[in-house]
């Protein structure tokens, strides 16, 4: 591993052990050293998120895996303590969770409609329970920095979340972070099919999530902010988003959410 600094992005290997197969995850730097340190400096200046460096992301994921499991949330087990020979400051050993990405399952035309709706409802309900805990504890690390249906594994009866190597830092008001995650989740749903498919999925998600007022607040946060400054910021962002013309653009899915929770 002495050449790991030359890697661009993480590497994961399946390793056979006497106790079964595990995943060995190596956290590598993203881009060259100048880009990596530039990103880290920006992160530290704004103070909004945890470290972007390889060792920092490894430490964040170890902390969040323990935090989420303590909160009763389903994430891969951190098996590093049982395999010290496979671990270093940039490597963790994780449970090898068999299964299919939730995004792939939902996009599979062979999946029965009832099973598809069940998975989406359970995913939404799990998001709601996690968000409730984040707000009651004042814990931003329970809000997923890259929330999406691409970051959940369907493994039998389990829905296992992964990709916890970045996190939000503490702040007084967590609601904007919830809005950010939920907007990201809805965009990931919009990528699965056409507009009618997304509208149907959105209705199931809203029903599964349950807290309609919180979802209304997410839409208002971006579409009708009370602050003049944020109205200007989101107006500029919205024009940029709309010029790109993407069907799953943030403001298109947020308008759909506003309609679904009206």
> Beta fraction of the residues?
5-15%
Stretches where pLDDT is under 50 for at least 5 consecutive residues are: 1-7
Our count of helices gives: 9
Class computed from helices, strands and strand pairing: mainly alpha
Total number of β-strand segments?
A: 6
Taking the alpha carbons of the first and last residues, their distance comes to 54 Å
Q: How much helix is in the residues?
A: 40-55%
How many separate domains?
2
Rg over CA atoms, rounded to whole Å, is: 19 Å
| Side-by-side strand order of the widest sheet | 1-2-3
Q: Looking at the structure, what is the overall shape? A: globular
Helix-strand topology string: EEHHEEHHEEHHHHH
Mean pLDDT across every amino acid position: 90
Characterize the largest beta sheet: strand count, sense, and whether it forms a barrel. 3 strands, antiparallel
Gist?
The protein is mainly alpha-helical and 262 residues long. It is built from 9 helices and 6 strands; from the N terminus they run ββααββααββααααα. It folds into 2 domains: 92 residues, no CATH class; 161 residues, no CATH class.
């Amino acid at each position: 591993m002495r050449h790991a600094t030359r890697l661009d992005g993480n590497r994961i290997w399946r390793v056979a052990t006497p106790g079964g197969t595990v995943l060995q995850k190596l956290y590598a730097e993203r881009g060259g050293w100048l880009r990596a340190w530039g990103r880290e400096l920006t992160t530290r200046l704004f103070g909004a998120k945890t470290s972007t460096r390889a060792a920092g992301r490894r430490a964040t994921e170890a902390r969040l895996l323990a935090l989420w499991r303590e909160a009763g949330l389903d994430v891969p087990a951190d098996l590093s303590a049982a395999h010290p020979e496979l671990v270093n400051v940039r490597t963790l050993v994780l449970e090898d969770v068999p299964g299919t990405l939730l995004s792939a399952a939902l996009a599979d035309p062979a999946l029965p409609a009832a099973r598809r709706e069940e998975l989406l409802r359970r995913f939404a309900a799990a998001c709601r329970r996690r968000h409730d805990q984040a707000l009651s504890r004042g814990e931003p690390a329970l809000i997923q920095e890259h929330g999406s249906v691409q970051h959940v594994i369907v493994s039998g009866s389990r829905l296992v979340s992964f990709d916890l190597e970045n996190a939000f830092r503490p702040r007084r008001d967590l609601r904007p972070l919830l809005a950010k995650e939920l907007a990201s989740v809805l965009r990931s749903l919009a990528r699965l099919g056409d507009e009618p498919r997304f509208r149907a999925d959105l209705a199931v998600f809203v029903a599964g999530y349950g807290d309609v007022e919180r979802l209304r607040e997410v839409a208002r946060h971006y579409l009708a902010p009370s602050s003049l400054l944020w109205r200007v910021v989101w107006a500029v962002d919205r024009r940029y988003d709309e010029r790109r013309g993407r069907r799953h653009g943030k403001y298109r899915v947020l308008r759909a959410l506003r309609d679904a929770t009206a």
